[in-house]
Amino acid sequence: MPVLHSVIHKINKKPDGNPAILHRCAGELVESQSRDELINQFNESYNAKPDKGWGFFVSAP
Question: Could you name the domain of life of the organism this protein comes from (predicted)?
Answer without folding.
Answer: Bacteria
